[in-house]
Specification:
Helix content: 55-70%
Structural class: alpha/beta
GO biological process, one term: chorismate metabolic process
Protein name: T-protein
Strand content: 5-15%
Subcellular location: Cytoplasm
Number of helices: 15
InterPro entries: 6-PGluconate_DH-like_C_sf (IPR008927), Chor_mut/prephenate_DH_T (IPR008244), Chorismate_II_sf (IPR036263), CM_dom_sf (IPR036979), CM_II_prokaryot (IPR002701), CM_T (IPR011277), NAD(P)-bd_dom_sf (IPR036291), PDH_C (IPR046825)
Pfam family, one: CM_2
């Protein structure tokens, strides 16, 4: 036991040295962030990250250290680094913008964008639900108006803005559906218009590696500065037609949210205790439970609006119901071979993405298992 204690003391000493090294690395990251802020460089550069990870993996392998271990550690450190750089602020891409108004800026997502815009040197004002009696004062002399309200209120809110809009203003929205809001903005406003959809929730620590969808409206040269500003934050801009966007969101959002809701509803009606399921769960099942539970920690109204947005969503959900029934028949009839044949057909449809998803999910499972605590 004395020998074990001595070894553990040595490990503790090395851990302390690692903490010291992490502190030094984060101090250097702060300096990097200051340079990026000064020159308007994005906080996330994928080429730099890929090259650095490849080099460190090679060095680790030469020393007999698992390359995946080093990559896991570095990715976690880099994630913290991106968050640290974000706190330093960002260069102002367009200093001619004197005032930005976020309609719905008191909400979580609107508040997130307000913070990033303020960190970029812009003056941001907010028009909340209770502020419309002062809308003329709040919107006066604004250069940008961002609509960030619930989906069900978006079109009405855009219409309500019309009397206050001037031709020099940029009008945009952050709604998760795009065709109708973009069409409505073009209808009520003669100036620059662009539709944006952040593909993330308001709980992110950094914009690094996040995706923001861009649906062009009118006068893109007048809002290119905003896209450049978002890129500096570390996000990737993905351009897509509004109709195509909404079609994709049927599967990315509506179908997924419905399936998650249905799974949670089904579980809640079963004679099981959630604590027992967690205690006995494998990492993959725990992760699935976490994704279901995450949904129910948020706003039900938002998900209802997304699912009920258009008839296409319900048609695709109905096809999911049919797929469940078709799948169940394999087992009701004992058709094992039919199941295997269908399984292989779906596997072929996924193709090489299956291996990619296997790798990505393995990393997620490792993180989920690392966080697991036993009482």
């Amino acid at each position: 036991m004395d020998v074990l204690k001595e070894i553990r003391n040595e490990i503790d000493r090395l851990d302390s040295e690692l903490i010291d090294l992490f502190a030094k690395r984060l101090a250097l990251v702060k300096k990097v962030g200051e340079v990026k802020h000064q020159h308007g460089l994005p906080i996330y550069v994928p080429e730099r990250e890929a090259d650095m990870l490849a080099a460190r993996r090679q060095e680790a392998e030469k020393m007999g250290i698992p390359a995946d271990l080093i990559e896991d550690v570095l990715r976690r450190v880099m994630r913290e680094s991106y968050t640290s750089e974000h706190h330093l602020g960002f260069k102002t891409v367009n200093p001619n913008i004197k005032k930005i108004v976020i309609v719905g800026g008191k909400g979580k997502l609107g508040g997130l964008f307000a913070r990033f815009l303020q960190a970029s040197g812009y003056f941001v004002d907010v028009l909340g639900r209770q502020d419309w009696q002062s809308a003329d004062q709040i919107l006066a002399h604004s250069d940008v108006v961002i609509v960030c309200v619930p989906i069900a209120n978006t079109l009405q809110t855009i219409e309500r803005l019309q009397p206050y809009l001037t031709e020099n203003m940029l009008l945009t929205d952050l709604t998760s559906v795009k065709r109708q809001p973009l069409q409505k903005m073009l209808e009520v406003h003669n100036g620059a218009v662009v539709g944006l959809h952040p593909m993330f929730g308001p709980d992110i620590a950094s914009m690094a590696k996040q995706v923001i969808v861009r649906c062009d409206g009118r006068y893109p040269e007048r809002y290119q500065w905003l896209l450049d500003q978002i890129t500096i934050w570390g996000a990737k801009i993905y351009q897509v037609d509004a109709t195509e966007h909404d079609h994709s969101m049927t599967y990315i959002q509506a179908l997924r949210h419905f399936a998650t809701f249905a799974n949670g509803l089904h579980l809640s009606k079963q004679p099981v205790k959630l604590a027992n399921l967690l205690a006995l769960s494998s990492p993959i099942y725990r992760l699935e439970l976490a994704m279901i539970g995450r949904l129910f920690a948020q706003d039900g109204g938002l998900y209802a609006d997304i699912i009920m947005d258009k008839p296409e969503n319900l048609a695709v959900i109905e096809s999911l119901k049919q797929s469940y029934e078709e799948s169940l028949k394999f087992f009701e009839t004992g058709d094992k071979q039919g199941f295997i044949d269908t399984f292989n057909q779906v596997s072929q449809w996924f193709g090489e993405y299956s291996d990619l998803f296997m790798k990505e999910s393995r990393q997620l499972l490792q993180q989920a298992n690392d966080s697991r605590q036993h009482g």
